[in-house]
Amino acid sequence: MIKINKILVPVDFSEGSALALRYAATFACEYGAQIHLLNVIEEEVMQAGSLSDTLNTTDKWEEQNKKLLEEFVPKELNNLDIIKRVQGGLVYESIIDYARENEVSLIIIGAHGRSGILTTLLGDTSYAVTRQADCPVLTVRPTQRTFIDQPETV
């Protein structure tokens, strides 16, 4: 029997992460799972604003991404249990740590790719998460055949 309680969807606001959210919504409806959306602001970007940040650049980026994350969820998914989080750090490490700390059952991550090289096929972040996560990882690409119904707008 498959038991999925929490699904993590790393969000970079790409078409791939929008598709990953659609998959997560389908699984959440089927298994009664909670969805965790995680947007990670690159550590280099966060640190750039940390040295006497009189303009509060870091806070502005974080607030901007929180707003984008709110807008990222289509209205038809508002009835689902969705937790939204923005944090700074190394992207793949933050995803893996978040999944571990929150006892995530499944990570669904958007991947990209146009060539035959594995890291290019999955994307560096997707590849690292797939290799190092403690839970199953489903990678999805907008250009591949899917097994979920998708509405016209994602």
Structure in words:
With 154 residues, the chain is an alpha/beta fold. The chain has one domain: 3-Layer(aba) Sandwich (Rossmann fold), CATH 3.40.50. It contains 6 helices and 5 strands. The chain has helices at residues 15-31, 43-48, 57-72, 91-101, 118-122, 124-132, and strands spanning 6-10, 34-42, 82-89, 106-110, 137-140. A 5-stranded parallel β-sheet has the order 3-2-1-4-5, with helices on both faces. Helix 4 (91-101) packs parallel to helix 6 (124-132). The chain is globular. Residues 113-122 have low confidence and may be disordered.
Please give a quick description of this structure:
The chain has 154 residues and is α/β, with parallel strands linked by helices. It has helices spanning 15-31, 43-48, 57-72, 91-101, 118-122, 124-132, and strands at residues 6-10, 34-42, 82-89, 106-110, 137-140.
Please supply descriptive tags for the structure shown above.
single chain; about 150 residues; alpha/beta; Rossmann fold; 6 helices
CATH class descriptor: Alpha Beta
Main sheet summary: 5 strands, parallel
Order of helices and strands: EHEHHEHEHHE
Helix content: 40-55%
Mean pLDDT: 84
CATH topology: Rossmann fold
Unreliable spans are: 113-122
**What is the quaternary state of this protein?**
single chain
What general outline do the C-alpha atoms trace?
Answer: globular
Main-sheet strand order equals: 3-2-1-4-5
Number of domains: 1
